[in-house]
Amino acid sequence: MSDQIDAPDNSDNVLAFTKRFDKNSDIKEMRNLVEAPPPEHKHHRCQHANVLVDEHYRQLTCRRCGAVVDAFDWILARTKGESKIDWELRALRQEITDHRQGLEKLKREEVNCRARIKTAQFRLADVNADIDKANKEMSFLTERLEQVRKLRGAR
Ligand SMILES: [Zn+2]
Q1: Phi then psi for 64, rounded to 5 degrees?
Q2: Which residues fall in a coiled-coil region (predicted)?
Q3: What is the pTM of this model?
Q4: What are the b/e assignments for 54-71, b being 16+ CB within 10 Å?
């Protein structure tokens, strides 16, 4: 003999007790369509990047958040992602082309600068040679002048 058998069935009392707190609880029972509560471990802003493809149920399920994913929406999102990468790749290639052209221009400028430096070095050598020549002439003339002064002083 157990207490549970002897215990009176008071489920009607429990129902009445619940209804006392939610007087609209009967409305849900009258509805045809009721929204399921969101899952407790719901991932916010999940991109559903990893999916399980179920051939039997013909269904995609997110492996991260467990949501059933609409196949067309999923493919469309991936396609848009690829379109974005497409544009980024084009922009990067254009950037590489621009940088290469800039580099070629700099290389040409470097060659020009080297040629100008070489020309300037030749001119400097010529000027130095002229200065050297002028110095020699001046020392020769100074020497001659000194000799003339000595000859004049000797008289
Ligand atoms: Zn997900």
Answers
A1: -90, -50
A2: 89-151
A3: 0.48
A4: eeeeeebbbeebeeebee
Residue 51: strand, helix, or coil: strand
Q: Cα–Cα distance between 85 and 53 in angstroms, integer?
A: 25
pLDDT score at 25: 79
Count Cβ atoms below 10 Å from residue 48 Cβ, excluding itself: 20
Residues with CB under 5 A from ligand 1 (ion): 46, 48, 62, 64-65
Ligand 1 centroid–CA 50 distance in Å is 7
* Residue 137: DSSP 8-state: H
CA distances in angstroms from 130 to 4, 117, 124, 134, listed in the order given: 128, 20, 10, 6
Task: Tell me the CA–centroid distance for residue 65 and ligand 1, in Å.
Answer: 4
Q: Report in angstroms the alpha-carbon separations of 44 from 34, 41, 64, 67, 137.
A: 23, 9, 11, 11, 94
CA angle 78, 42, 45 (to 5 degrees): 40
Domain ranges of the chain: 3-69
pLDDT at 81: 94
Question: Is the Cα torsion angle 102, 108, 113, 114 positive or negative in sign?
Answer: positive
